[in-house]
TrEMBL record:
It comes from the Bacteria. InterPro entries: Cu_amine_oxidase-like_N, Mao_N_sf. Coiled coil: none annotated. Residues 37-102 form the Copper amine oxidase-like N-terminal domain. SUPFAM superfamilies: Copper amine oxidase, domain N. This is Copper amine oxidase N-terminal domain-containing protein.
Length: 246
């Protein structure tokens, strides 16, 4: 199985009555969550994506539409198998090749439907929803939520990587960095947020970087980079010590 995000995975297939089946639960590789709602109905879902398969029926539900799978699903050794062509199509891919000698089937163009990215630090959870592009911070004990606009538009997990990293400074400021990188070109956007006592005191955004930028310097200062300037920040107070034009 070849994914749009560059991954290649392998799954067991089942051949029955001339039809090749693939495990429905391999949809978890696409970022979908699966569950058996009852003994006869399996569901894969994530955000607006929803796939429902009924035992004993070749009619499935895909995003609210009825779709004929061609054959009924098959249960075999704790797996639920569906026709491989159906599995490929509902993940926005296609069967590209079938080797009749080995039985190997190649499926390409599969999409990833991951819709959120997570991180945690010192009793707080950090989440970025792909549909919004903002940073949502939730206190684990209080449940209090804070949203920080980032301006990340059209997050595409099939072409880009998004990572959250956390670093404490010697004087107990928390630096949260978010890198949104293009797998093909190698450039990335860098979002840096500086927190003091759980409150954000500094923020910077730089687009199209090609080299790694060291935010916490060996001299104890913090360097925040944006599209025009580099700000030298004092550790502890968060004051701006100097502004350097890029």
């Amino acid at each position: 199985m070849q994914w749009e995000d560059g991954r290649i995975t392998h799954i067991e297939t089942l051949l029955k009555d001339g039809v090749t089946y693939g495990s429905l639960f391999s949809g978890s590789e696409a970022g979908l969550l699966w569950e058996m709602e009852n003994d006869n109905m399996a569901v894969l879902r994530r955000n607006e994506k929803r796939i429902v398969v009924h035992m004993g029926s070749r009619i499935a539900e895909v995003d609210g539409r009825e779709v004929d799978m061609g054959s009924e699903p098959v249960r075999y050794i704790s797996h639920l198998y569906v026709p491989i062509r159906f599995l490929a199509s509902v993940l926005d891919g296609e069967v590209a090749n079938r080797d009749t000698k080995t039985g190997k089937v190649t499926v390409t163009g599969l999409n990833n439907y991951t819709d959120a990215f997570y991180g945690s630090m010192m009793g707080y959870s950090y989440m970025i929803r792909a549909a919004k592009g903002d940073l949502e911070i939730t206190g684990a004990y209080t449940g209090q939520k804070t949203t920080i606009p980032l301006g990340i538009k059209d997050i595409n997990v099939n072409t880009h990587d998004l990572t959250l990293n956390f670093k404490w400074t010697p004087k107990n400021l928390l630096i949260v960095t978010i890198e949104y990188s293009n797998r093909k070109t190698g450039d990335y956007d860098l979002y840096a947020l500086v927190f003091k006592n759980q409150g954000m005191i500094r923020k910077s955004v730089a687009h199209g970087l090609m080299e790694q930028h060291e935010i916490l310097k060996s001299d104890g200062t913090i360097q925040l980079i944006d599209d025009k300037n580099i700000r030298i920040i004092d550790d502890g107070s968060g004051d701006v010590l100097e502004v350097i034009t890029r």
